[in-house]
Amino acid sequence: VYRLWIEAPRVAKSRKVGQFAIVRVHDLAERIPLTIADVDIGRGLISLIVQAIGLSTRELCAKKCGEYVQDVAGPLGLPTELEKYDHAVVVGGGVGTAVVYPQAVGLKETGSYVTAIIGGRTQELVILEDQLRPVVDELIVCTDDGSYCRKGFVTVALKELIDNGSRPVDAVYTAGPVPMMKAIANLTRPYHIKTIVSLN
């Protein structure tokens, strides 16, 4: 998993939380949609979190500092609906944490109390922990294999938070593998908790 900073000043200036960019490494490369995880408007930079899996993502992650990509199109997609909640929870699975990180920042800016639950199959797939910690009020980290922090799925941690937490949960924002997001939506439905998932 790589974090890239790409110079794209117009994208950085107009991006809203939840939007993405499409990156093409070269003329023959596929178009890769990636959530804009962060921006540095002053320097005209956007941050993208990429898991190197296929040919195009491996080519993108192999770029060295100062090299170029062919295209960066964006910002695209609907911005995330952000409002003030007494308690909002963001749940990120694997690279889905790159999506919920800016949502956590945006929710804190509304004045919400924010808990983040993030996880991965192993410790190596837990990302943005250090960036989230100063942003949110509570942070829960899970690994499927128990190699780091709490052993188990993020869904189990969310259920415990809903059932036993010190604050009622008003809204859940989640991004990650589709089965994980489906499980979270099924979990929150009986509680009538507003739940927003991110689909590409």
Main features:
6-stranded parallel sheet; 5-stranded antiparallel sheet; 200 residues; globular; alpha/beta
Termini separation? 18 Å
Q: Please outline the major beta sheet.
A: 6 strands, parallel
Please state roughly what percent of the residues sit in beta strands, choosing from under 5%, 5-15%, 15-25%, 25-35%, 35-45% or over 45%: 25-35%
Please mark out the parts with pLDDT under 50 across 5 or more consecutive residues, or reply none.
none
Which shape, going by the Cα principal axes? globular
Would you list the SSEs in sequence order as H and E? EHEEEHEEHEHEEHEHE
Cα gyration radius (Å): 17 Å
Task: Count the E strands.
Answer: 11
Helix content: 25-40%
Helix and strand content put the structural class at: alpha/beta
Strand order of the largest sheet: 9-8-7-6-10-11
Mean pLDDT: 94
